[in-house]
Amino acid sequence: MTEFPWLTAIGVVPLIGSLVVALLPKSKPTLAKQIAMFVSLLVLGMTIAMALQFDGKSSEPFQFVESYPWIPAFGVNYSVGVDGIGLVLIALAATLVPVTILAGWRDIEGDQESEGSVKGYFALVLVLEALMIGVFAATDVFLFYVFFEVMLVPVYFMIGRYGGPQRSYAAVKFLLYSLLGGLFMLAALVGLYVVSIRELGTGTFDFLSLVGMDIDPNTQKMLFLGFFFAFAIKAPLWPFHTWLPDAAAESKPGTSVLLIGVLDKVGTFGMIRYLLPIFPAASEFYAPVVIGMALIGIFYGAYIALTAKDMKRLFAYSSMSHFGFITLGIFVFTSIGQTGSVVYMVAHGLSTAALFLTAGFLMSRRRGSALISDYGGVNKVAPVLAGFFLVAVLSSLALPGMVSFIGEFLVLLGAFERYIWVGSLATLGIVITAAYALRLYQKSMTGPLNPSLESDGITITDLKGREITALMPIAALTVVLGFYPAPLLNVINPAVDWTMNTISAVDPEPTLSGEGSEQ
Amino acid sequence: MNFTPPAIDYAALSPMIVVFAAAIVSVLVEAFAPRTVRRFLQLLIVFGALITAGVLIILNAGTRTVTGGGAVVIDGPALVLMGTIVVLSILGAALMAERSIDPVGDAFAARASSLPGSEDERQLTQRGYLQTEIWPLTLFAVLGMLLFVTANNLLLMFVALEIISLPLYLMTGMARRRRLLSQEASLKYFLLGVFASAFYLYGAALVYGYSGSIFFPEIAQALTSKPSESIVVFIGMGMLIIGPLFKIGAVPFHQWVPDVYQGAPTAVVGFMAATVKVAAFGALLRILYVAFGGVRWDWDPLIWIVAVASMILGSIVALMQTDIKRLLGYSWIAQAGFILVGLAAASPAGLESTMFYVIAYGFATIGTFAVISMVRDANGEATNLAAWAGLGRKSPLVASALSLFLLGLAGIPLTSGFVSKFAVFVAAIEAGATWLVIIGVIASLIAAFFYVRIVVIMFFAEPTEQTASVVIPSAFTTIALSAGVAVTLILGIFPQPVLDMLSNAGLFLR
Predict the structure, then answer these.
(1) Under an 8 Å CB criterion, which residues of B touch A?
(2) What are the angstrom distances between the C-alpha of B355 and each of B279, B342, B506?
């Protein structure tokens, strides 16, 4: 079975699906949705089938490897393969796409604000799914870059054609920020290629060959900056984050889920997959700066979230704070921290999806208003909705028993191992997280029913079957993986160990002596 | 006195001979054929000659020879450039042959010599007179471009430059609508062009004075063998390259570009924007790589300055444009800067990447202007960006095609523009000009802003009463547009065959 090109197949299926959806007549919006749903479920099924064959004990860095020459003149290959990190992120993408399609079933049609067609949106979602799978599966840096950049196009149209009143502004801002990062990455990519010509004789973009190079530290520092810039904008890290709140606020909930839940992970994925192994010396050199940015992001994001009036913006800033944790875990150079970061990426994808979708359902009942002050006492009229919202909020604040807790805990553990003061500082961030998350739940769900609802003539109804079906898998995964994270950790650990070995980083010995030690 | 005629390799020169003969016949047809059959005959001659020339170029593949007494060189890069010019000319001619878009007929003035706004003009238009003098002019311009990329000495290159320029000055002024704008552009182009030609001639004289030869290989030899470098030859070189740089439209020789792009008939702009750039870059490459290849460090700073100035000025001024043709003019200036980044590398990679870029750009340009010629309102072409609002909703296919070209020009992967940019940046960094690439990256971002702006206007804005409509063209424009789309995608996704062709073409014959 190793012969079957799993990754290519998983990438091509949604692409074909999107073509089919795009070619449907405009008069059949329901059929478009059904086909999109079917395709995304097929992809999910194939991903699960592939994941079951993944060998957690394999000594090879990548599995399901395929490689064909693409542009030999530039040493570019179509090379794909996954390690544990790539696998869980592909699985995350494959899970969230059908969920968002189902959740967004009624979001597009009959919306006067949006101008695009129903089939157009679902075709874009499927294109995006194909590109997301490609970006996590690529083992050729050029191929990765191509997916990284082309991904902008469907997202740009998803924000710009289907969204709120300021959607055009948000889409352009998103695109320009991303292009800025992408172009600097292009310069670094070209530089890396030229370095590979000098080091290896022939130019290559093959990831493993690039990792094997011994690049001069000063060159590393320059190239690192090009890549880091792109990833920091994508992630987004403070201070490159300003596009995110606008994009999140103006997008459809489904778009936001895919954007923040999956796409932004490309930034942190790029750091752990490309920055650390290819530029180990530069990563070490810049680590203090990056950790500083991560810490600022944790607090800054949380602080703004604390004062946010708009739910979607609150989620965006809270994501920024979470991305601070993820980046922190990567750059403390401990295997626990990096494992924690990867778990955190998955957990954050799930919690973001839960938050945006539940909030989206809530907002669709109140003419799309995202203002927290427009709600209150919802748990009296819609207990199921409030219940799911609570799960989402608790998952966001990393309550023990949720998968996000495992991620956050491991990141903090990793940070403490390396720098006690960084760990201590970051831990304080949890407190603010709890504060804004609980404040949001309290203001919107508990207390007396908001009188403005009545005066506006709006009754909040509880979730219906389709909406519950969409939220159920996310909530289930959050809790199940929270109590039983072994499947996740078993595939992530070898990949992280490989990264740690490649960069010859060693976990620090426990330094506490005396009563606390095991003697 | 005994005169030995130079040996002439007629097979190698056959593409030029065919085009030249066709141009002469075309003039005769214009003079003597009855009006009813004239257009048919002209199209037959033009497309027949261009296709024949293309076939002859393919048959010549692998030829590496110097002929015509050392004046003409046919080598790999020359053949590639000639082939590109001929194919782009066919597509450009298809745009000019279009007659279904404008209700009056074609895009050209009924009689170019009649005064704009005069009674004479009004009557000619009313009677529906359609002239076909554009065709011989086109063929002569193509002939000039074929000679420009194969010229091996300073004099033939000058003659070629003039054969290109004179027809283009006229074609620029032949727009049927907004004739004053068109004629103003024509005059401006003419005056500045003559100026540039004079610089070229002066430079040629200085270089000849230093080296004692007008042939590129001998100039190169003189530069390496003479012990003392003379300042005269470098002043001469600097003035010499003004000729091609003017045709390229690089800063500071760019002032004519926006006016001509805006004023000339759209089909003519598509034709000349695509082909002249190929020819001019071919000539510039040959001057710098063959004649001055040994003194790279003396001309590199010049090219750097021109490249940086073009990238920055082109991108920034394009931001403020409201007319799409003018905007594309400034965008071209920026693109010229990017190509010069590759050219400055002075390496085989520099040669290949420059040629790849001009090929990719040529096809995208033809496609872009095909779209512009189709977007119209009551007053003819709607070039004001306000008229493009919401076009994506009215005509999604056409708007998507234009978006593809614009994203390609912006350098988004999977389009030809990305591979081009990648190739020139690789060449530049290999040659050690990392800082130039960083400036290029910043300029790319500014450029992306205005390309994206057009996409935004088309897709995200609401259609208004001003919004133009897309006219369904005949097969001519459709073919040109489809070819642009196809090449932009193929060169973006599978560039290898073309890259192979360019690397097999090898270097200039010295």
Answers:
(1) 393, 407, 410-414, 418-419, 421-423, 425-426, 429-430, 434, 437-438, 441-442, 444-445, 448-449, 452-453, 456, 459-462, 495-496, 499-500, 503
(2) 10, 9, 12
**Best CA proximity match to A164, nearest among A119, A112, A123, A121:** A112
Burial class (CB in 10 A: 0-12, 13-18, 19+), A439: middle
How many other CB atoms are found less than 10 A from the CB of residue A451? 10
Task: Of B198, B187, B164, give the one whose Cα is nearest residue B279.
Answer: B164
Apex A475 CA angle, A469 and A477, nearest 5: 110
Tokens of A494: 């070898």
Cβ of A146 and B444 within 8 Å?
no
Suggest the residue from B341, B353, B422, B503 to mutate for an interface test with chain A (most A CBs closer than 10 A).
B422
Give how far the C-alpha of residue B449 lies from the chain's centroid of Cα atoms, to the nearest Å: 24
**How far, in Å, CA of B318 to CA of B333, rounded?**
9
- Interchain pair B422, A74: CB under 8 A: yes
- pLDDT 10s digits, B237-259: 999 999 999 999 998 899 999 99
**pLDDT bracket for residue B282 (50, 70, 90):** very high
Provide the edge-to-edge strand list for the sheet that holds B469-470.
B380-381, B375-377, B469-470
Q: Is A22 on the interface with B (CB under 8 A)?
A: no
What pLDDT, on the 0 to 100 scale, is given for residue A112? 44
Residue A367 in domain: yes
- Write the pLDDT tens digit of every residue in A418-450: 888 888 888 888 888 888 888 888 888 887 887
The whole domain housing A344 covers: 285-507
Decide: residue B410, CB within 10 A, 0-12 exposed, 13-18 middle, 19+ buried. buried
Number of domains in chain A: 1
| Residue A305 domain flag | yes
Q: In angstroms, rounded to a whole number, what is the distance separating the alpha carbons of residues B130 and B110?
A: 5
Q: What is the DSSP letter of A372?
A: G
For residue B418, what are its two tokens? Answer: 């990305």
Q: Do B495 and A175 touch (CB under 8 A)?
A: no
Give domain status of residue A411, yes or no: yes
Closest to A144 measured CA to CA, from A127, A126, A132: A132
**Both tokens assigned to A422:** 């960084």
Residue found by looking up tokens 């552009």 in the block: B185
The helix/strand/coil state of A54 is coil
E-strand stretches of B53-182: 65-67, 72-74
Give the integer Cα–Cα distance in Å for B79 and B11: 13
- Which pLDDT does position A467 carry in this prediction? 85
Say if A29 falls within a structural domain: no
Over 90: is that where the pLDDT of A132 sits?
yes
Task: State yes or no: ipTM above 0.90.
Answer: no
Start-to-end CA span in chain B (Å): 31
Nearest Cα to Cα of residue A116 among A263, A256, A252: A252
**Alpha-carbon gap, residue B480 to B470, rounded angstroms:** 16
Pick the closest to residue A301 from A288, A290, A316 (CA basis).
Answer: A316
Contact B495 A190 (CB under 8 A): no
CB contact under 8 A, A190 and B426: yes
Write down the pTM of the prediction.
0.91
Cα separations (Å) of A22 from A26, A120, A122, B38? 9, 6, 8, 45
Looking at chain B, the number of H-run helices and the number of E-run strands are 21, 5
A95, amino acid identity: T
| Phi, psi values for residue B97, rounded to 5° | -80, -5
N residues, chain A: 519
Shortest distance, CA A346 to any CA of chain B (angstroms):
28
Angstroms from B499 CA to nearest CA on chain A: 7
Chain B neighbors of A130, CB-CB under 8 A: none
> Coil, helix or strand for A182?
helix
Other C-beta atoms closer than 10 Å to the C-beta of B473 total 21
